[in-house]
Every structure is written in structure tokens, then in C-alpha cells.
Predict the 3D structure of the following.
Amino acid sequence: GDSVTQMEGPVTLSEEAFLTINCTYTATGYPSLFWYVQYPGEGLQLLLKATKADDKGSNKGFEATYRKETTSFHLEKGSVQVSDSAVYFCALNTGNQFYFGTGTSLTVIP
Amino acid sequence: GAGVSQSPRYKVAKRGQDVALRCDPISGHVSLFWYQQALGQGPEFLTYFQNEAQLDKSGLPSDRFFAERPEGSVSTLKIQRTQQEDSAVYLCASTSERLNTGELFFGEGSRLTVL
């Protein structure tokens, strides 16, 4: 069935370090792909999305490219900040349902 | 409203009690989803409404779980005879997209603890 597998955490980085959180998916058809973020004490909110192969989603310095050949949607940021500390969820939408990964907790230390 | 509102934010129930969790979606949003999020896990799909019609309830874990959205706006998730394994955060999300290809807007969740 359709599913998302993302990198296990937790991840701890120093401020200004480079971030990669891996996400791969299994889906029939052509899903849309998303990264959601959950800051402490808040609900999930959309970070970025890509709706077709080779699209790049970007927001707040984060980027992810929809790679159909490797069924991946890895999240990257060139220089993380303390305020990026949160839990990140990869998700796919098949048109009928959203499927979420288990989440990756990121802590950025000054 | 400005965002998806859920209540109560926290609920403690004794095993065997019934609970009701409320979701008030963004005004005008057609589609509404309920998810269950266990500690350290991602959201797991429970059920989906388009307006007042419950189009998919395949994720409801047992017949103790029941959801409704009678007027196509506010939704209630009811859990009867709660068990300890029901302890989780219950998330509600809505979207204006009929075909669910767009962004989901989430509430802050209702944290249920069953003792």
C-alpha cells in the first residue's frame, strides 16, 4: 500500500549546520508530496509541497525536490537556526488520503 | 474562524468512560479529516468527511469509535468505553480542496489520556 518512510531521529545540529532529513515513498499513481512541521506546543503546519516529478518546494530556506526515479523527497536546509527546532513530517497525498511518516525531531543548539 | 479549533485540548478519562472530541474547521472548508497520533509517531488516518458525508471510515480502529459531521461544519469524534490503548493525540484537519490534493490545515489536537 501507499506509505512514507522517513529518517529516524532525533537529530541534533549546531546552529548554521547543514540539514538533510531523508524521505522515501511508495505509491501507485502520481501523488503530491509534502513536508509538515510541528513546533513545540503547536499544531502541524505545511512547510512546503511539490505536486509533480522534478518540482522543487521551498519555504523559509528549506527545500525538497520530488524525485520520481528514486521515489524520494528529502528535506534540506543550508544553515539551520535555533528556531528551526521542531518535528518534521513527510507526507504524501494520493488524491484520496494523506499518509504521514513517523516524524523526525530536530534540535538546533546555539 | 481563523483556524481549526479543537476541544478539549486535554482530556483524562477513566477506562470504560465515553469521550467526545470536537472539531471546528475553517469556515467554508469542505473536507475534514480525523487522525490519531500516538507518542513519537506520525498521524494515522481515522476518517474523512466531505461536507456532511463520511466518505471513508476505514481507519477507525474499532466500533467503539464513531464520528459525525451532521451539518457539514463542526465534527465530533466519539469514543465509547475507552481503553488505555486509546490514549493519543487526536488531530482534526480541514481543507477547501474537494479532491484532497491541497494543503491540510490542522488543529492543535486533543490529548486523551485513559487511566
